[in-house]
Amino acid sequence: MRDPRVTKHAQILVGYSTKVKPRDHVAIVGSPLAAALIKEVFREVLKAGGYPYPFMGLEIMRGLDGLDTILFSEGSDEQLKHVLRTDRMIKEEFEVMITIRSAGNTRSLSDVDPERQVLWSRARAAMNELHDQRTTDKKHRWCATLFPTEAYAQDANMNLREFEDFVYQAIFADQDDPIKAWQALRDRQQRLVNWMKGKKSVVMRGPNIDLTLSIEGRSFINADGTFNMPSGEIFTGPVEESANGWVNFTFPAIHLGREVDDVKLLFENGRVVLATAKKNEEFLLAMLESDSGANYLGEWAIGTNDQIKQFVKSTLFDEKIGGTIHMALGRGYKITGSKNKSAIHWDMICDMRQGGEIFVDNQLIYRSGKFLI
C-alpha cells in the first residue's frame, strides 16, 4: 500500500519545485532504496507531459552500499578524475534534474584518503560552474531531496517511522495542500528578501560568533523549495574579501561522508587564517587546501523552516533549521553575485537561538533566532 505522503512528495517535486512542462527532459537521479519515490516522480512527470529519464548518479552511490568506497579506494587517479558522461549530459543538456538522496550507509567514505576526495571534487569544478550558469540563465531547473532510509534515521537517533514523520513534516507532505504551504513560506521570505535589497553590511554577534561581512551589491535569494526540498532560507554570496572575525559552528560539519566536530574558523579580509576542529581536523584542513577559493565564503544564509527544529546530521535539513545561520566555504552561486570559485561548497551551521544577534546596516534585525523586522 502506497504511503500518500510519498505521492505528495513527488507532486511537490514535479509540480512546484521544478515545474515540469511538456517535452521537458527530466533526469530522475536516485538509487533502488528510493524506488517508491522514483516511481511516483516518474508518474508525475508523465502526467506533466515531460520525458522522464531514471539515472543512478555518482553522488548517490551510497544507496548501493560500497560502490562509492570501491571507486575511492580502488580507482586510479585517472578514473577518479573521469566525469561520468551521464552526469555531464544531465547538467549540460537536460531542462530538469531531480536528485533523490537515499544513502544505505552515510559514513561509507569515513576512512577514504581526503586527497582523493579533493581530486574527485576538482575534476568536477568546470562542469559545476557551467551548471550554475545554466541555472542562473534559467535554462536548467533542479531540485535535491531525500528519501527516508534506515541509515538517515540512525544518524538522527530515530527509528525509521519517526524519521519518515520528521521528513514529511519538514516538506509539508503531511498537510492537505503542501504546495499552498510552500507558497505561503515563499511569500513570507520574499518580504525579507525585499527588505535586504540594497543593504551593505552585516554584523553577527553571540555566544558562538563575532563576525562582520559585506553584502554590498549582492542579491538575496528566496530559497522556497525550488532548489532543495525541504527548503526554508534566504541566502546571498558575501563580498569575497569582507569577512572579519570568528565563528564556532555549533553542529558537526558534514561533507563527503565525513563528520567534523566543533569547527572554529578565524577570518581576516575574507580568508580563513585559522581553522580548528575536535574531530577530523585533518579532513577540514585538506578541504581548505582544495584551491584558493576554498578559504573564502561563497554563501551566507539564514534558516527559516520552523518545521525543522532538531539537528539530524543531514545538511539538506539542518541548514534550514529555524533560528540558525549557515555559511558555505568555497563555491558561490552566480545568481547572488558571488565571484568565488572553488571545487567545494561546504555548508556549516551556527545556532543563533541562544542570544545570537544580526545587525544589517547597523539595525538590529534578528535576535535569538527570530526576525525583528
Please explain how this structure is put together.
With 373 residues, the chain is an alpha+beta fold. It folds into two domains: 4-174, Thermophilic metalloprotease (M29) (Thermophilic metalloprotease-like, 3-Layer(aba) Sandwich); 197-371, no CATH class. The protein has twelve helices and 20 strands. It has an eight-stranded antiparallel beta sheet. Helix 1 (4-17) crosses helix 2 (35-48). The longest helix has 19 residues, at 178-196.
Short description:
Strands 14-13-10-6-5-18-19-20 form an eight-stranded antiparallel sheet.
Q: Please, what is the average pLDDT?
A: 93
Q: Number of helix segments?
A: 12
Q: Stretches where pLDDT falls below 50 for ≥5 residues?
A: none
Please give the order of strands in the largest beta sheet.
14-13-10-6-5-18-19-20
SS content category: alpha+beta
What is the C-alpha radius of gyration, as a whole number of Å?
A: 20 Å
Largest sheet: 8 strands, antiparallel
Distance between the termini: 46 Å
Q: Which range best describes the helical content: under 10%, 10-25%, 25-40%, 40-55%, 55-70% or over 70%? A: 25-40%
Find the count of extended strands (DSSP E, 2+ residues): 20
Domain module tally: 2
Strand content: 25-35%
Shape: globular
